[in-house]
Amino acid sequence: MMMHHAPEIAIIDANTLSAIGLQSVLNDIIPMAVIRTFSTFSELIDDTPDMYAHYFVSSHFYMEHTSFFLDRKKKTIVMGGEGQALQLSGVTMLNIYQSKDMLIKSILRLHQHAHHKGNPPEALPPKHLFEHNLSAREIDVLVQITKGLINKEIADKLNISLTTVITHRKNITDKLGIKSVSGLTIYAVMNGYVEADRI
Question: From 24, 51, 164, 184, which residue has the greatest number of CB atoms within 10 Å?
């Protein structure tokens, strides 16, 4: 039996709260990943720094240790605000000051782009982990939910009654065990029902 290698992700950030927050968001998106947090750069270096699939690094540490991360540019995501993107051209930026839903969408996009660039898609779980046999209609409703539509708008768009939408939503939630819109969005992207760029 082939072992599915869990991707290892390093978060290097002196701000414990933001490191823990990002860790929790990443756990939702890539549940099988092994995520380690480092509050100093030397902790990362004392570890095995080259085993990681991705480095999420605060802009502060990135500035202090640019050469290390430039050598690993494809794997590095710098956490910061909008303004810093200009100073760090050519490096992937993650704006950590956006809302949780937007943050999840940004990370999903990064995740998808990494795989489109020919990196091995080992960070994505095997499809069957997510097979919950949604009907075609439920998938239609799910896709509309990820676009942020409310029940009434979904009913209009799909030409079905409001009651039917509510029933579909209940079935989706029961089958997947996911209640939040951000959780449903992650599920939809992972299964290819929506492109991360469209959400």
Answer: 184
Give SS3 for 110. helix
pLDDT attached to residue 158? 96
The C-alpha atoms of residue 58 and residue 15 are separated, in whole angstroms, by 9
Cβ atoms of 181 and 104 closer than 8 Å: no
107-146 confidence digits (pLDDT tens): 888 876 665 554 444 444 444 444 567 899 999 999 999 9
Q: Which two tokens stand for residue 62?
A: 């990135």
Q: Which helix (H) or strand (E) holds 78?
A: strand 76-80
Own/partner pairs, 189-193, CB within 8 angstroms, 24+ separation: 189/108, 189/112, 189/146, 190/124, 190/125, 190/130, 191/127, 191/130, 193/139, 193/142, 193/143, 193/146
Give the torsion sign (CA, 106, 112, 116, 117): positive
Q: Hey, what domains does the chain have and what are their CATH numbers?
A: 8-123 (3.40.50.2300), 128-198 (1.10.10.10)
